[in-house]
Design a protein that fits this description.
homodimer; 434 Repressor (Amino-terminal Domain); Rossmann fold; six-stranded parallel beta sheet; 12 strands; 42% helix; DNA-binding; transcription (chains A, B); HTH_LacI (chains A, B); transcription regulation (chains A, B)
DNA sequence: ATGAAAGCGCTAACAT
DNA sequence: ATGTTAGCGCTTTCAT
């Protein structure tokens, strides 16, 4: 007699009793298996409606072994790059009748592992993971080997046999760099994420390659790799931009860095303007003055492709592992076209 | 003999057999129930490790009736307002050992209903919902009455007995309007979401109230309500801003509208500058020139509070239904302080 | 401290 | 077209 008595949820037996049929017939109707007479279907549906029956998917999952659910793991689900990607995954999942579990790893491999465990305990049919830097292959490879569908996005985990969808980071960063060179710049700075982060390293490599291809000497004094959320970045940036023989252009290695940089540049507006190309597009890049030239990734496309790969595997496809590179696209908006000394 | 033979996932019986104990003892160890000798614990843990056992939560859920999962339903999980809110919910859920199912309603009440069904079939312990405009109370009230924990955020559903976390939309919009009046503006335009959207109507009411309190006559020619994603908004906006006796200031009713407006203003820069206050903060508002004055909501706080309310209910709390209003905060950045005619 | 048996609500397999 | 039976892997209950 304590609390408001919550009416117990009706089960298929309750519906069966109400409709005067057997349990299995209710199951047939609920799952639209067919081979049930029109009258019976109507009677069962009426009983379902009247009792407010909803199938208990835990029981279904226990029996069938499928959760109709996939798990997403990102560093931070509120990062616009990942939330856009997640949305695209959701649309594909919906078409496959699947739901989405989402969790943020905070870039912590240990926590990431906890999430993988929690997801697999729940029997997710597959995982789409942007792995945290430093993720060991062990657990994931075990899952992959046990037949769990896994697709990596944005970053791979070497040692895990799983499909992977990556941006062409080297090519994109090289294109950004070449673009600045073509606009007359010779001293181009690069600000990227922590060197442990796969994309940061690849993008730095693309930058260096393009410099060399342009006959320019990479200069350590123009490169800084640090988490864009770190403290003291104003000093880090200032140390590069205010040195003797300073850069006349710069590249930021991801959207967090672009935004951090724009904030810095606004706070230090007395400095001579620098040409600026960001890796990854971001909202309002086109509205700023000058509008920000970017190498746009295609997060929605990456999400869609990753999800399609995943559901192919969930469906039992045995094709060889794929690694798909999505080419980024240079979007010229103004900030990257300020002429450098060689054109001045 | 088709495909790579996927090793069957080990169960508790397998672990029990390997460790030479009974099924129940394994269960005790896995769930840290205690009353197991140190040696036995060690033996069981070794077997778990060796076999790579993970508890099957579908079976657990079937028996216990709890999924350790909550469901989130938003219009669009990639909207920064909602993705920030979702992230805050996630942090609270994590502390309660719960995972997050997320789905986007696209503002469609029918699809929203499908999602609620899918979530409840899966036995979620609770729902956090930003309901689509036009949501009927029926299904949700049935769930609430059946004891499912529900918390509404951003918008209520009248007729459903559930806790609700809302912004003080009227107060916030009134503050934005009063701020512009105090800066000398007399003709202030308002661009908000569709009139079916709860927040749009409340914010419009706050705007009108503040005008009247300032002794100003609300003027229909200065107000437009439309989805910020609609086509042809440039004409809608132009129709207001380019009329005879045009406004000298404007308010946008949500972050999507703010961004839409900034894009329009940039494309029509020849027009005399208008004072501008946005409802809801957005990234880079501080970096634009002029920086955009906003009435900032607190999506993370709203998410945290909603989640805390939810888990209180999941835990069985029987307190009366609460409706919490979170006061927004005016952040003065420049765009809202351009002096109007009364101060010129 | 440990174990045996029953059963959660559903679907698979097999009748009829 | 419909029904019966067994059992998915776990937790609950009750012994010992």
């Amino acid at each position: 007699m304590s609390g408001p008595s919550t009416p117990a949820r009706p089960t298929m037996s309750d519906v069966a009793a109400a409709a005067g049929v057997s349990l299995k017939t209710v199951s047939r109707v609920v799952n639209a298996e067919g081979y049930v007479s029109t009258d019976t279907v109507a009677a069962v549906k009426a009983a379902i409606e009247q009792l407010g029956f909803r199938r208990n998917d835990a029981a279904r999952q226990l029996r069938q072994g499928t959760a109709a659910t996939i798990g997403l793991i990102f560093e931070d689900q509120s990062d616009p790059f990942y939330s856009t990607l997640a949305r695209a995954v959701e649309d594909v999942a919906l078409a496959h009748g699947s739901l989405l579990l989402i969790a943020s790893s905070n870039g912590d491999p240990a926590h990431s592992q906890t999430i993988v465990d929690a997801f697999t305990s729940r029997g997710v049919d597959g995982l789409i993971v942007a792995p945290a830097a430093g993720t060991e292959p062990g657990l994931l490879q075990r899952e992959a080997a046990a037949g769990r569908a896994i697709v990596f996005v944005d970053r791979p985990v070497p040692g895990v046999d799983a499909d992977t969808v990556l941006a062409d980071n080297v090519g994109g960063a090289a294109a950004a760099t070449a673009h600045l060179v073509a606009n007359g710049h010779r001293r181009i700075a690069f600000f990227g994420d922590d060197p442990g982060v796969f994309t940061a390293t690849e993008r730095l490599a693309g930058y260096s390659r393009a410099l060399r291809e342009a006959g320019l000497e990479p200069d350590d004094r123009l490169v800084r790799l640090a988490a864009p959320t770190a403290d003291g970045l104003d000093d880090v940036i200032g140390g590069v931009l205010d040195q003797t023989d300073p850069p006349t252009a710069l590249i930021t290695g991801n959207n967090r860095w672009s935004i951090r940089m724009l904030r810095h540049l606004k706070a230090h507006a007395s400095r001579a303007p620098l040409a600026f190309v960001g890796f990854d597009d971001f909202e309002l890049a086109d509205v700023l003055d000058p509008a920000v030239t970017v190498v746009a990734q295609a997060p929605a496309e990456m999400g869609r492709i990753a999800a399609e790969l995943l559901f192919r595997r969930v469906g039992g496809a045995e094709e060889p592992i794929e690694c798909i590179r999505i080419p980024p696209r240079l979007i010229v908006r103004g900030s990257g076209e300020l002429p450098g000394p060689a054109l001045a």
